[in-house]
Specification:
By secondary structure, the protein is α/β, with parallel strands linked by helices. It is built from 17 helices and twelve strands. The strands form two sheets. The protein has a nine-stranded mixed beta sheet with strand order 1-2-6-5-4-3-7-8-9, sandwiched between helices. A three-stranded antiparallel beta sheet has the order 10-12-11. The N and C termini lie far apart (52 Å).
């Protein structure tokens, strides 16, 4: 990006009354941020949502001091800058009307042609939540998804750690600028995450992790992914805000159900009860409902020698061995299992190398 365009983008953000939506309208109309400041007031005022008052503020643009300081900070710290029209700006976020005008990145943050899931939840994660989160990511690992979360205490950091343990790319979306690490206790994970993933934020240096910034951050977490998974949540909290945003963006939302007496399962149970989330009992639920092509997984699992199948797995295997290729729905019907259970069984058998998925949700015994 030209230095002059970067300065223009940063300056445009400093104009009082210009938010992400208006800024994108201005740039789309004028062709670039630099051209916005060259346009006549009469032309600017005719743009939807601008008017004469805001056009005058744009023409009397703020001093360049703040923009120049931020540009120097960006260059000094090797921060990548992604305006909404950039090739490497996350594709799904481009389709969100209120997506950030600018994203700042550090590390490996390219998401093109990747499965991306966001995992969110309470900061007071329980042992049940830890187990569910780790198990889910371990089961998804053969499909090499990118795991996105908010780098906060609780579910967020457990998800990032589990992703690192399985060699997955993981991205933390921050509620502050790159001049600090918050929470400070997570500094020990910073370099590890940058090595196999990285961080994204819409906030400049000097922006503290204020409460309202976390709410803004949540729309990036929801918008950047094809699905949002809530591991644990109380009846109210930031995770439910993220889930609602994901629904607004027409993304799939999943929630891990829990006991009705558990405080940090109430939010998940409520999402499922009100049909704002699919119940997530295994990785197979997500894979099936999102239509992921398991056959195209980049980490194929070779058949294990001397595999012993018992119980339900043997029932499914014997059916496939005797009937050849079959649809998931038919397998579930003929074997007498719910579809979600059949999906889970098939995924486990695939990882053992005794079942092969085929296009069109077909499966066959190996």
């Amino acid at each position: 990006m030209r230095h002059s365009e970067l300065l223009a983008l940063l300056t445009l953000q400093n104009v009082e009354g210009v938010g992400d939506v208006i800024a994108k309208k201005l740039i789309s109309h004028c062709g670039s941020a630099e051209e916005v400041f060259r346009a006549k007031s009469s032309a600017l005022s005719r743009i939807d949502g601008v008017g004469t008052s805001l056009a005058a503020k744009i023409r009397n643009k703020p001093p360049l001091d703040q923009a120049e300081r931020e540009a120097a900070f960006i260059e000094k710290n090797a921060i990548s800058v992604l305006p909404y029209y950039a090739e490497h700006y996350p594709d799904r976020l481009k389709h969100c009307l209120d997506g950030p005008l600018l994203l700042f990145g550090s590390g490996v943050t390219t998401l093109r042609n990747r499965h991306v899931v966001s995992i969110v939840g309470t900061r007071q994660i329980t042992a049940y939540g830890v187990d569910c989160c780790k198990r889910l990511i371990a089961d998804l690992a053969p499909l090499d998804p990118v795991i996105v979360s908010g780098f906060a205490y609780g579910v967020d950091i457990v998800a990032h750690q589990a992703a690192l343990e399985h060699g997955l790319q993981t991205i933390g979306v921050l509620a502050h600028g790159f001049d600090r690490i918050y929470p400070a206790a997570h500094r020990k994970y910073w370099e590890k995450m940058k090595a196999s993933g990285g961080f994204l934020t819409e906030f400049r240096s000097g922006n503290d992790p204020e409460r309202e910034n976390f709410v803004k951050r949540n729309r990036i977490v929801a918008g950047i992914s094809e699905a949002t998974i809530v591991i644990e949540s109380a009846e109210k909290g930031g995770s439910l805000i993220t889930a609602n945003l994901a629904n607004d963006y027409n993304r799939d939302v999943f929630a891990v159900p829990g006991r009705i007496t558990d405080k940090y399962s109430q939010g998940c149970n409520l999402l499922i009860k009100t049909q704002r989330a699919h119940a997530l009992t295994s990785a197979a639920d997500l894979i099936y409902l999102l239509g992921w092509d398991v056959a195209a997984a980049p980490k194929p699992v070779q058949k294990q020698l001397f595999v012993t199948l018992e119980g339900d797995e043997k029932t499914v295997y014997d059916f496939l061995a005797g009937n050849g290729k079959e649809l998931l729905d038919i397998i579930a019907l003929e074997c007498g299992f719910p579809i979600h259970k059949t999906s889970s069984l098939l995924l486990g058998m695939e990882l053992k190398g005794v079942v092969r998925p085929l296009p069109g949700k077909l499966f066959e015994a190996v």
